[in-house]
Amino acid sequence: MNHTPTTDTTTTPAAVGLLAGKVAFITGASRGIGAAAARLFAQEGAQVLLAARTTDQLKAVTEDIRAAGGTAEYAACDLADGASIRAAVHHTLDRYGRLDVAFNNAATIVPPAPMDRVAEADLDHLYTVNLKGPWLAMTAEIAAIRATAGTGAIVNNSSIGSLIGNPALPAYGAMKRALNSLTESAAISYGPEGIRVNAIAPGTTLTDMMYMWDQHSPGIIDQYNTRTPLRRAAHPTEIAQAAAWLLSDRASYITGATLPVDGGMHT
Questions:
Q1: What is the pLDDT of residue 3?
Q2: What pLDDT is recorded for position 212?
């Protein structure tokens, strides 16, 4: 089965930039959905700060954005290290003087297995990166938005696996479901200040993480495409488009939502 989306919106120009005039912070921005988001946000008018562990890849994406006429900087950031997260957010303020929006995209995965075969160390790693990491990032981002822009928006990258059970990735799904709860709580806490917090729940998306899973479990992409009404996987830019919209002023009355971006899989 063909895994390639029928459309790729990476070069489609926006009539009016969704994020014009905003400063955006993006974790996990060196590849996949995060890199697509960095390119798209810059194309939509934002000044972007890319954060991830892989400096070489961050530099390459940053240079691509600049070559296309965008404004971008990068900072090394490890979601397992709270000081590293705070330093990356502070670098955004040092470079641009403010923070308006943030996309907490970075995540990790462990080998697929039933719950009784997931190593305790893998569970701890998923907790540290996929739940504690976004918690720490949101704390730093909220403080930065509050101190500079005053109002803003945050989007957390969850997963369709947070909305439906997945026996192959039980711990991953559990952390993502907890992230949805954290998103809702933050939306309630910071809504009165004008800070919106939402999440997106991508379905099958053609990222390195998905290809790794397909190598471990051959045919899993095809299986999920069969279960998806649109009968295909998403391009990372399609997921980034949803995040950009939720971060933009066009979604100004939406907070506390977890938006499925899954081709109808969860329908």
A1: 56
A2: 83
pLDDT at 208: 81
Three-state SS string across 201-231, please? EECCECCHHHHHHHHHCCCHHHHHHHHCCCC
> What is the domain extent for residue 183?
20-206+236-261
- CATH number, domain of 115, equals 3.40.50.720
Q: What is the pLDDT of residue 5?
A: 53
Determine, yes or no, domain membership for 257: yes
The total of structural domains in the chain comes to 1
User: Is residue 42 a part of any domain in this protein?
Assistant: yes
Per-residue pLDDT at 265 exceeds 80: yes
How far apart CA 137 and CA 118 sit, in angstroms, is 26
Q: What residues act catalytically?
A: 172
